Amino acid sequence: MRKAFFICLVLLGLALAHAEYRSSTPAAGASVKAAPQTVVINFSEAVEVRLSTFKVYPLGAPPEAWGSSTRLRRLAQPLVRQVLLLRGDAARRVDAGVTTTARTSKTVTLALKPGLRPGAYVVMWKNLGVDGHTETDFFVFVYKP
Ligand SMILES: [Cu+2]
Questions:
Q1: Element (H, E) at 8
Q2: What predicted TM-score, i.e. pTM, was given to this entire model?
Q3: Ligand 1 center from residue 69 Cα (angstroms)
Q4: Ligand 1 centroid distance, CA of 11 (Å)
Q5: d(Cα 132, Cα 34) in Å, to the nearest integer?
Q6: Is the dihedral of CA 42, 47, 49, 52 positive or negative?
Q7: Ligand 1 centre and the CA of 135: distance in Å?
Q8: Rounded distance, CA 88 to CA 56, Å?
């Protein structure tokens, strides 16, 4: 009994220790009617902004898939694996980089290029938390005017 309680505390500690996705604008899985100009991601702890990678890519998913966040996530996984750590890919991305100027922050803002086309978009990152742990994750949102 006491041992189980201790293990729970350890697991809880590990879960709290990483800079995990908490919320965002647009939200994960959201469909927005107006083209967003920024993506704001809130993490559970501060990240080293300059030592982390953030990207937004068009998913190229067919319109009939836009309504299913499960299907969009499945389509996004191979893209994230392929491009997250790719260099020199600015032309393929729809983000114009991180605008958060603080060295460490729980909230990271990405500017989006103007003229976003309707479609599904993947927001992906490999962050470095202030505790020294990295976390790779992504979410998808849909722009459907
Ligand atoms: Cu951690």
A1: helix 2-17
A2: 0.88
A3: 27
A4: 11
A5: 37
A6: negative
A7: 8
A8: 14
Compute the distance from residue 132 Cα to the ligand 1 centre, in Å: 7
Residue 136 CA to residue 144 CA, distance in Å, equals 27
Ligand 1 centroid distance, CA of 81 (Å):
21
Identity of residue 67: G
Task: Please check whether residue 119 is in contact with residue 60, taking contact to mean a CB–CB distance below 8 angstroms.
Answer: yes
Segment 43-101, tens digit of pLDDT: 999 999 999 999 999 999 999 999 999 999 999 999 999 999 999 999 999 999 999 99
Instruction: Mark residue 27 as left, alpha or beta (left: phi above 0; alpha: psi -120 to 50; beta: remaining).
Output: beta
Domains in the chain, start-ordered, CATH in brackets? Answer: 2-143 (2.60.40.1220)
